[in-house]
Design a protein that fits this description.
Blueprint: E1 3-8, E2 17-18, E3 22-23, E4 29-31, H1 39-47, E5 52-57, H2 62-67, H3 71-80, H4 92-107, H5 114-131, E6 137-138, H6 148-167, H7 171-183, H8 193-196, H9 204-210, H10 213-222, H11 229-236, H12 258-273, H13 284-292, H14 300-307, E7 310-311, E8 318-321, E9 326-331, E10 341-344, E11 350-352, E12 364-365
Length: 366
């Protein structure tokens, strides 16, 4: 909550927000109301014998912060602003239909309508991607439902399709990887409920049971004769690792299908950020940093496509820099997902976090 307070210019500090305009005799604003004061402003006020001014105190919410941005900073933001790449847009109707479709698939693996339901759900996602030629996904907008398994399946499928598009997959392959992403955990329908729904961390024996879900999923699809080898491999191998230390087969990168390599990255990311009864979810920033360190587990090309497919800090969002300064995001660079271009709202400076070596010590605080 922001409050207005009159204080002596002798105790002004850089970064305070002035809550009145300082004008000259002609009425021209020398310091605009809402400006962030710097050392030059403070020295000027003191040199002119101005004994005190009104300032704003308290933590500003985003709307208040927007109102306090001085005009010269607004002009720099507008000049520097570059729209984000086209993003997947999942409206509430699509989310509801996709969520219901996933629940049906997991509950009716023996149904004659299984293939049709799978096709319908994947077509919904394909249409969303193609309607606006989406090449990116805003990872803060992925949540589809509160039920973990179904939400996770849609999140993974959505990310996998966008990653696959940037990976260079053709339209049919993107459709197939969407199906594999939707069904990658369908084998969990064969896992005993006491293991699947256990509120705490699994013990070694329970985990050995859970690890069978990818094999069960493969068997479900194999019996239907309706799914390509690529889709079945994506489901079977999504927990395999490049170094051969994954499961269920322990194969290395040379034997892992490209669908599985892509789904694996999306699966790991979504699992990291998801809150579970036995663990807190990591922040999106932390999860991305952890994935970037998993070069022994994840395919490097799939990882690069993932990093180039996500938007962590959408343009126009307000972030806080490690210097303590709030800033507004004005441009994202797919090469530097953690380090966009921002404009400092106190300093009125443009910080190119990804390319400017002078900004090397600055990071965005989650």
């Amino acid at each position: 909550m922001i409050k207005r307070k009159f204080i002596s210019t002798r105790v002004l500090k850089s970064g305070m927000v002035i809550d009145q305009a300082i004008v000259d005799r002609t009425g021209r604003a020398l310091i605009e109301k809402g400006a962030f004061l710097d050392d030059f402003h403070i020295e000027y006020l003191q040199s002119k014998g101005i004994g005190g001014v009104y300032v704003r105190e308290g933590e500003a919410d985003p709307e208040e912060l927007e109102l306090s941005i001085p005009q010269f900073t607004r002009d720099l933001i507008e000049k520097s602003r570059v729209e984000d790449r086209a993003r997947v847009q999942l409206n509430e109707d699509v989310k509801a239909r996709v969520g219901e479709g996933i629940q049906y698939l997991f509950s009716n693996t023996e149904s004659d309508g299984f293939l049709e339901a799978t096709t319908n759900v994947s077509s919904e996602l394909m249409k969303v991607i193609e309607d606006n030629d989406a090449v990116a996904v805003d990872i803060s907008m992925l949540k589809v439902s509160d039920e973990y398994t179904f939400k996770h399946s849609v999140d993974v499928a959505t990310m996998a399709m966008i990653i696959g598009k940037n990976f260079g997959l053709n339209r049919n392959e993107i459709r197939e990887i969407g199906i594999a992403g939707l069904l990658h955990d369908v084998g969990k329908s064969k896992i005993p409920n006491e293991v699947l729904n256990k509120p705490g961390r699994l013990d070694e024996e329970e985990f050995s049971v859970m690890k069978k879900h990818s094999l069960f999923g493969y068997q479900i699809l194999k019996e239907k004769n309706d799914f390509s080898d690529g889709i079945k491999c994506g489901v079977l191998q999504h927990h395999e690792k490049i170094n051969g230390k994954g499961y269920p087969l322990g194969v290395d990168g040379k034997k892992i299908h490209k669908y599985a390599k892509i789904i694996s990255v999306a699966d790991v990311y979504d699992a990291l950020v998801t809150e579970r009864p036995y663990k807190s979810g990591f922040s999106r920033q932390e999860a991305i940093e952890m994935i970037m360190a998993m070069t022994a587990d994840l395919d490097i090309d799939a990882m690069k496509s993932f990093l180039g497919s996500i938007i962590l800090y959408p343009v126009d969002s307000i972030v806080h820099l490690s210097s303590g300064e709030p800033a507004k995001v004005v441009e994202n660079d797919p090469r530097f997902v953690l380090r966009p271009k921002v404009v400092g709202l106190k300093s009125g400076k443009l910080y190119d976090l990804g390319n400017d070596v002078d900004c090397a010590s600055l990071i965005i605080m989650e």
